[in-house]
Amino acid sequence: MSTPASSINESNDPPFARPTMQDVANAAGVSLKTVSRVVNNEPRVDDRTRERVHQAIAQLGFRRNDIARSLRQGQASSTIGLIIEDIANPFYSSIARGLERVAQKYNYMLIISNSEENALRERELVNALLSRRVEGLCIVPAGSDHSYLSAELRMGTPFIFLDRPPMQLQTDTIVLDNRGGTRQAIKHLLSYGHRRIAVIQGDPRVYTGAERIAGYYETLAEHGIPCDETLIYSNCDDARQAQQATHTLMNLPQPPSAIFSTSNRISIAVLRALRSYTFQPAFVGFDDFDLADMLPVPVTVIAHDPAEMGARAGEILFARLAGSNVPVQQTIVPTQLIVRGSGELRPSQA
Amino acid sequence: MSTPASSINESNDPPFARPTMQDVANAAGVSLKTVSRVVNNEPRVDDRTRERVHQAIAQLGFRRNDIARSLRQGQASSTIGLIIEDIANPFYSSIARGLERVAQKYNYMLIISNSEENALRERELVNALLSRRVEGLCIVPAGSDHSYLSAELRMGTPFIFLDRPPMQLQTDTIVLDNRGGTRQAIKHLLSYGHRRIAVIQGDPRVYTGAERIAGYYETLAEHGIPCDETLIYSNCDDARQAQQATHTLMNLPQPPSAIFSTSNRISIAVLRALRSYTFQPAFVGFDDFDLADMLPVPVTVIAHDPAEMGARAGEILFARLAGSNVPVQQTIVPTQLIVRGSGELRPSQA
DNA sequence: TTGTAGGCGTTATCAC
DNA sequence: GTGATAACGCCTACAA
């Protein structure tokens, strides 16, 4: 009933309409502009007027409409966006947390969306967020061509790419030291006498995968170790495939003396599969994970700090929003070998 | 240069201004309204006109401003909010994922914010989100008085409370079967002959904590087992305190034969502390956690499905948005005992 | 100290 | 089919 000319009044429409500044102004007997001044804590308002307005606000339950505000003010939505693959994955949720902390510091809200590793959906999400006028966007890209962002980039919207660089686009990027981390792992295993080091990896065409496997090849080559391709299993992001690969490896006439896994999810699947063998190969995994230190053989890993990645992305983003014009930067976040036991087993048939 | 009367042109202002429908209209030689029609896929537009407009849109890099759109359309921001304690906690990130899936289904965006268990911050976030005109809000409450939401609730904004009910407010709520789950755990331990069952818990004044410890007391009472208060340790959400409590318990003249922990974080701390003892008490924890099955003694837990909680919250929220007027509902999500080994150890001094 | 006029970018209404 | 005009709720600029 309170909404003047709405459709036939269904019984569920709200009994109280949302008040506007004009409503508050009417209730307080002042002009709309005075209410605006009070709401925004502007100085030149009589204390008694201010008080009356505050009462009207409280009584009506008025709440400033930030949508209208940001429309008038230009592009100040005070919102940034984050696109990741899956918030339920601890790697991404840590990134989100790091970024949110920074956003909070600058009094910004964060909209998080999951691309589910789908390039098309990523693009839809980017468009939806830009249409909502987020002021900047952090993206863990799933797609392989980001040239569609170039117009938006020229208009001043900052984009920060996380974990993987953009393709066909020049913008700030934060990646792990994928190659260096893998080199650490492989050198570590070599130093314990391993020569047959298997790799169970995800998709080697994805940036992180390509870097990691390149680190493996490089390190073997530098040490003059011939590479046995039968020890390399790809596309094992799925737990089932990783376990299958582990079983295949362990049943080779000459099984590997060590296994390197390129991600935490693969690591866990591999370790699960290894439980059924008495002979335990040495093991090092890329990415740390909860309880790695609590397993029967504590797990040696290449660790890094995803929350730090998120936080750095945020700082770069806000620097850009503040007008920073420094050249596009690529930040490389270091990795760290954490020695726990599984990586220090020696080859039995040395 | 392109912005007419802005302040002195600093070198970093965007070289291209963001085009509006009017710009597109000028470029295409049509009226603004026609552009609007094309953008919104309205039917009565000549195909040739439509084509010209599309070209202008592509050429200028036009993107509809959803802020202006939703201002004009009333309250259709197509955005909902979620307030949790910490997105880096798997319990909450799973909730977020479940909710986001539903939001996605209805073509809504999700804004996630972390209250950090701070009632004041929770309230600030609620206000910020409502000012941004989210159409509904899911909250894992940190505060202890939500009457401040009643005006907003009357205006039709749906609020769904997750994991803990609201205080001083009647609205839809989704909680775990905290009491029932704890009863399952304690009965399970009793059935294996345990009579001295310690509890390491968080804050017993928080709703979930209160329900869980009540389930413990209840079950002991029903079985005629006297309750030994020296076996109950509270406020152990911090890992250090949980470990300390474990050590104290294990060094009692007569240590407990079983330990029940009220959350996954506590469980992990307790299990870490237990590693230094040869005698292993039976153990059951509330909440499942990754790798619980991989520990030297696989961990028996009371499991549940946080993503399902998030999804259900979402469905109720969207039902409310669609006008559902059914009475306020409290949904109780069931828990499940997962038997893995640690809960099936028998008391040694039986 | 307070108020008026105009516009932010879009959609709704109604005329052509 | 297409276009002028008036909102949406707020803020900026300027006037009183």
TrEMBL record, chains A, B:
Keywords: DNA-binding, Transcription, Transcription regulation. It comes from Dictyobacter formicarum. SUPFAM superfamilies: lambda repressor-like DNA-binding domains (SSF47413), Periplasmic binding protein-like I (SSF53822). Gene3D superfamilies: 3.40.50.2300, lambda repressor-like DNA-binding domains. The keyword Cell membrane does not apply. It comes from the Bacteria. SMART domains: HTH_LACI. It holds the Pfam family LacI. InterPro entries: HTH_LacI, Lambda_DNA-bd_dom_sf, Peripla_BP/Lac1_sug-bd_dom, Peripla_BP_I. Residues 19-73 form the HTH lacI-type domain. This is LacI family transcriptional regulator. The keyword rRNA processing does not apply.
